[in-house]
Each structure stands twice: as C-alpha cells, then as structure tokens.
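**Sequence, structure tokens**
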Amino acid sequence: MSMASTGEGLGRRDLIKRSAALGLITVPTMSFLSACASGGEEPTKGPSAAPKSADNPFGVAKGSKLDVVIFKGGFGDDYAKAWEAAFDKKWGTTSTHLGTQEITSKLQPRFNNNTPPDVVDDSGAQKIKLDVLFKANQLADLTPVLDAPSLDDPNKTVRDVLIAGTIEQGTQGGKFVALNYVYTVFGFWYSGKLFKEKGWTPPKTWDEFLAVCTKAKEAGIGGLAHQGKHPYYINVVIMDLIAKKGGLDAMKAIDNLEPNAFEGSAAALEAVEAVYEVVEKGLLMPGTNGLSHTESQTAWNQYKAAFIPSGSWLENEQLKQTPDDFDMQFLPVPVLAGSKLPFEAIRAGAGEPFIVPEKAANKAGGLEFVRSMLSREWSTLFAQQANSLTVVKDGVDPNVKLRPGTQSAVTALKTAGDNTFNYLYPDWYSEMDTAIQDASNELMAKRIQPKEWIKRAQAAVNKAAQDPNAKNNRRS
C-alpha cells in the first residue's frame, strides 16, 4: 500500500499534514437534520430513510445504496472495502466503492451538480480544501454522530471515545464537519541501523542535530533530506521549532491570526534562522530541493541522508523502498536553547478527514458509516490493514503488530504524555498555508533570508485575518 509510485503519498501526507498539523472544522446545519428526517432527498437511491431508533439513530434504510469515495494513498483502500462489506452485511445496504488519488477532478463536478457521494475520505494532494467546501455549505454537520451512542458501549456517546483534539481539528467556523480519523505524529525520521553503524546518538537539541548533520556530511551523506517540491514538510520543522521555543502561546498566535504571529515573534525568527543554518552550512542532501516526496524519501531509504521530516504515514508510504533491516525510527524535532516545551513534546493529532456531503442522497447511511468507523471493530480493521492508529481511544486490539517506525511513534506519544500540540491554520486558512509553504520553498533555495520569510508569513496571516469566517475560528 505504498504511495510512493504516484502522488498519493502527498495526498495522504497533505491531508495528514493538514489535518494533523492543523485541524479541520465542522458545520452543524439544520437542513441536515430536516433532510434526514424527511428522507425527501433520496428518491434515486432506493428506500427513503427508515424510522430512527436507539440502534438506528439516523434511520438507515434497508436496501438503500451507499456511495463511498476513498483517497487511495499510503493507507491503501483495503480497509474501506472491509468496512463496506461489514456495513452492507449489518444494514442490508449496497455499497459502491471508488479508491482514487484524484479527489478534486472526480468529485468537484459531483459537488457542483449536487450529486456528491455519501462518504468521502477527502485527502491527498488533490483533496478539495475543507474551508472551501465549508464556505459553499457542502458539508453536513457531524455533531449528531458525536451525540449518538457509541457502538461499543451504548452508555457512552461517540464523543466520549475520541482522542482529545479530534473534534477541534474537525471544526470549521465553530461547526464540526470533518472526522479526522488517523492519529498521526510529526517530526524527524532516521534509520536505527545507520545511526548504530556510525555511532551517532539521536539528537535532543538543535545544536546536537546540526552536529549529526555535519558528521553525516563528513561521511559523504546528506544531513537533512526534505521533500523539496512539497514545502509542507519543511514547514513541519519550522512550525514545530516555533511551538517548542515559544510554547503553546506562539502556536495559538499563528492559528488566531495575531498581528505579531510572526513579525515581532522572537521564537519565530529564531526557528527560521535555525532551519536556514542547515542550508547555509551545506547540510542538506544534495538536490533535495528539487525532489518530490517519494524521491527524497527513497534517497533517504538508500542511506543518502541522516534525517527526513514527515508524519507517521511515512512508513506505509515507503514500504517497498525500505530495506528490511533499515529500522525506521521517529525523533521529535530537537529543541532550540531556552525552549518552553521539552524535547519530548511532539506535534500529534488527527489526520485523514472523512466528510458526509450536505447534499448526500443517503445522508443517514453516511452518518451511520462514520459512527461505525468509531467502533473498536472498525478501528482494529484499519490498524491491521494500514499499520496506523485511529482517533478511537484504546481502539486497536493489542494483538495487532505494528511496524518499527509506527511502534516508535507510539512510544514517543506515550513519552510525550500531555506535551502534544497541533496547528489548525492549514485547514482553516488554506491560502495562508500555501503562502507560507511558498516562502519556505524560497528560503530553502537561498532566494530569500529568514527576515523576508517572516515578512511574507505575517502578510499571509494579515490577509487571512480579513476573511469574515476568521471570527468563528478561535482557539483559547
């Protein structure tokens, strides 16, 4: 299920980066409730909605059709086929399945014609931006799913079984509209085998990180590889350094579009200067600025660089390219001197947004499908097929064996404890996210200096602050 052969990785990454990195949003629309209740919007899909009950809170109709579209990236789509089979068996429905990387090109016309699917995994490089769908009133409110009984324990609601931050990440303009399903960890990755052979100690401070990169260069290896064509990845490093140096307040200032989010922020300038030092000292893997995510990750798998930044989908994405004895390991981003958060702190959060379109023909089926995703049974199916954790608390059967990279990320999460953080701006303000990525692309190519990066990033913040929707996107 590697996504390395195409742009899928990016997609997944993009989603995760976005979702995980930031968060999504949600939208509670009343029309969703009335449409469900009346069943008046599903004349072409078999029976209208069935009566609602404790066991069938949304009124799924036996014999109805369910249209599911899945981003087929690093997680593949076998897990979704297993879900659909279980759903059809339980509810007497007939599911149709599309696994694709081309979410926008396949689905934009359907949204425009008001004939969208019933469930969409809106991820990947070609995902439809959630803030765009939200503003067009295309996303159903998923709050009723949160308030419905959990399938594992009817005495608990679905919201009770979610990892902290999941709801915040799926919220747009104050409304819960996207379920970010995959619990993702972000940071650096390295080969345990290479570090053992070279006698390198995984660094905890930025100075130690630069020292290992320097030793790598002396050994004829790149220090840091990054996915140059997709500056989202190097932004993980920059933004993590800002959050660790300046603490959660520095992160929230950016998400809340403060006038000093970047300009006037000592933490932000120091973080950008730290990353720029890698460039200035020639510690990047040669050519990495021009590579796609899969190209740079594959070179790293070939021991051509000591470190690469990514989310925890990396292991799945690189299955075919990773040597059996590579021993993939996760490393939190090392800290700058005087950082407010400890080395062990990591960016972690929900990624891979699943949505139910507001105009779905079988909205009842879509909502029940999302509720089913948050059962232990479906969470375990996902872990088995996709080597990844979900946002369901204790949702994966302990007998499921995880690969070394994913296991190391799980260990890092436990070590971090409450010291996790996550940005929300990429999903709230996709234009701002893109502008900051563009600035990072220029920085890594030495076409601009850190102070100019700060200026451009703040300009992107100031522009986003003019968005009328911004007043509803606040974190305290």
